[in-house]
Specification:
Blueprint (H helix, E strand, L loop, with lengths): L1 H24 L5 E4 L5 E4 L12 E3 L8 H14 L13 H45 L4 E3 L5 E3 L2 H18 L5 H4 L1
Antiparallel strand pairs: 1-2, 1-3, 4-5
Length: about 180
């Protein structure tokens, strides 16, 4: 009786081992092919119809690729695809740099437009001040309007005060632009 029990246990072990091997060999169906870039692709689904038959290396139920196909793909793969090394991180984001450059250009254009606006206003102020000073220097009588809307003729004191004010405007607006405004 002991002999039949040990024999039964050996048969049981063999059956379990055989089932394990069969279970492993019937793993989910796998396809293996080489894509247009020369990369091996593993998938549970069949490749697209445009993949040539010679690039399909393994189908479900097929143990391995035929030797001729393996030799062809081994020879073609290194030529078709560059060596498989991870891309080196450059630490740069091209899109971010492009946006940054665009923002800098917009800021520069804005500053340039502002500088042109200031230069135009300075030129207009200089021209007006020079014309007004020329009028005062000519000695003609100049009338101004007071707060009540009445017309008054400028006396010598008002004329001197206005000349001093115009000289200050000419000094600030009729020369080269100050450094703070030029930038």
């Amino acid at each position: 009786m002991e002999h039949s029990t040990s024999s039964l246990s050996g048969v049981l072990k063999f059956a379990l081992t055989a089932l394990t091997v069969l279970a492993c060999s019937s793993a989910p169906a796998q396809w293996l092919w080489i894509d247009a870039a020369g990369n091996k692709v593993f998938s549970d689904t069949a490749p697209a119809p445009e993949v040539p038959e010679k690039n399909i290396l393994k189908r479900p139920g097929m143990r391995s690729a035929p030797a001729a196909v393996e030799a062809d793909t081994a020879a073609a793969a290194p030529q078709a695809a560059p060596p498989l090394s991870p891309p080196k991180p450059s630490g740069r984001d091209a899109a971010l740099e492009a946006k940054k450059k665009q923002a800098e250009e917009a800021e520069l254009a804005k500053k340039k437009a502002e500088a042109e606006k200031i230069a135009k206003a300075r030129a207009e102020n200089c021209d007006r001040a020079q014309r007004a000073k020329a009028t005062l220097d000519s000695g003609v009588r100049v009338a101004t309007t007071n707060a009540k809307g009445e017309r008054e003729i400028m006396d010598d004191k008002a004329r001197a005060s206005e000349t001093q004010r115009l000289n200050e405007i000419i000094r600030t607006d009729c020369g080269p632009a100050p450094q703070a405004q030029a930038q």
